[in-house]
Amino acid sequence: MPVAPRLTRQVDTMALPGARLTATENEASSGADLAQAEGRKDQAIAGFGATVEQIGLHLNKQQMAAAAEEKDRADQVAVLNASNQLAMWENQRLYSPQTGALAQRGQAAFDLPEKVGDEYQTLVSSVEAGLGNDRQKEAFQRVKLQRGAQLDLTLRQHVYGEMQKYEAGELQAFVDNSVNAGIANASNPQRVGLELGNAEDAIRMHAKNLGMSPDQVQQQIEGVATKMHVGVIDNLLAQDKTKAAQVYFAETKDEIKGDALARVQKAVEEGGLRKQAQTKSDEIISAGGTITEQLEKAKGIDDAKLRDEVEQRLEHNQTVKDRAERETEQKTLKGVYDVLDRTHDVTRIPTSVWANMEPGQRSAARSYAEHLAKGVGVETDFPTYYGLMQQAARDPESFATTNLLNYRHKIGDTELKQLTEMQGSIIKGDRAQADKQGLGDFRTHEQLVNDSLNLYGIDPKEEGKSSPEGKAIAQLRGMLDARVSALANMTGKKPTNDDIQKTLDQILSTTVDSPGSWWNIWPGGKAGPWGTDSKRLIDLTIEDVPAADKDQITAALKKKSRPISDATILSVYIDRKARGIK
């Protein structure tokens, strides 16, 4: 830091050159300079004091201003906090999705302005009590009044909208109730007119509140009248009061607007047609005769529409009659086989039932009883079984009406159960369930079998027939099903189409040497009675089974209590040959 040089006062004793001395006094010699200096000093001191005073006053003003600013800021923060409390309450009270005031609908919203307003006043009183001074309270007054006004406006707008919706809904409900009451009392014209008038009066009364224009009011009234009239006519037609419907339509058709007029007019016309058709068809049916004879009578009706309607009714009546007869027949046959299952004796069947059974049904019952008497179950005749499966696959409607009990003597318990369940699913329209019950696999097998038969020179169309090829195809299907089932049990998996095709090829390509028979046709059409024939498994007949094998198979069938017939013997023989058993 620089240091200022100090000056040392020096007093010289030498006399001033040319000094002049005088004895006269002046201001300096009399002390005037001192007095002035003192005065100036006092003035300086006084000025300094004033300056200090001024500085003090300035500092005090700054402090006061700062204090005031801090107070203002504190007031502002307090009011801001109070305002935030109101805002948080409003957000929750008005806008909560479940409990907020604006979530309330219908009548629940009508008292919201008063109810929420009271809650708001309670809140602002509590918030105001927490403010520290009058300035804060004064500023808060403006906040609460402004927010309160907006709150009330929001609530009243919400209530107005809900009131509009509620009134419109109530009006619509009143009109609908009036229309429904009029339609329900279609046979009482006075009640219909009363309900229609009530509906129209209600629309006019509430139209202004709902802001409806005169044109809108007219449209509403016309729409209600149209709905009422159409409903009354439909109800009368449904009650077969065709004449009353025609009269009502004639009186009100000018009040039915839009497309409804054409529709209800057509309904009235069809109602009249239906009534005539019902009367005419009842006459024909009551006269008796076959359905063919009844339809022939219907041809004499000149009106084409009426004739069509009558014919449809006659055919429907026959369908219902056929179904009733099938159900009766099924019930009767079920009773027959229940008796046979208990007694094994056809003579125990009630005489009245036996007398009404068809010859084929009686024969089937005897055959079934014989099986039971011998202690053996019915062996499935596969040509019959696969014929029914084909019917189910190709003509399910016909299969659905087939009485399966007519085949009870030819179908074993397992196959009969499958066919019965399948038939039930088809009747219900559940084709998917029928497929699960075996029809789906049958379709798949059928296509593969037909393709393979064609390759091996066998006509698939012979299936189900009593020809040699028809029987061969039935044998093929039986062998295929047995092999596929065995493969599934062995692998635990559903055989693929390739697996099935390999099985088919193996069955069709396997041959057996048998003594010469009628099947061995030589060129020229003569049979070779000597030597041996090489036959496919499916071509074998009972004549191809050696006597020794017949005796052995017969003994085995007796031991297992299985039926003994040419079919069962041949089936076992073919199965043995297919598996390479000697």
Oligomer: single chain
Mean pLDDT: 83
What is the H/E order? HHHHHHHHHHHHHHHHHEEHH
Shape: elongated
Unreliable segments (pLDDT under 50, ≥5 consecutive)? 1-9, 13-23, 517-531
Question: How far apart are the termini?
Answer: 137 Å
Which strands sit side by side, in order, in the main sheet? 1-2
Compile the SSE list and pairings:
Blueprint: H1 32-95, H2 112-129, H3 134-184, H4 189-207, H5 214-238, H6 242-252, H7 259-286, H8 291-298, H9 304-343, H10 351-356, H11 359-374, H12 382-394, H13 396-400, H14 413-428, H15 431-455, H16 468-491, H17 497-509, E1 511-515, E2 532-536, H18 547-559, H19 566-578
Describe it for me?
This protein has 582 residues and is mostly helical. Among the domains are: 52-164; 185-286, no CATH class; 512-582, no CATH class. 70% of the residues lie in helices and 2% in strands. The chain has 19 helices and 2 strands. It has helices spanning 32-95, 112-129, 134-184, 189-207, 214-238, 242-252, 259-286, 291-298, 304-343, 351-356, 359-374, 382-394, 396-400, 413-428, 431-455, 468-491, 497-509, 547-559, 566-578, and strands at 511-515, 532-536. Helix 6 (242-252) packs antiparallel against helix 7 and helix 14 crosses helix 15. The longest helix has 64 residues, at 32-95.
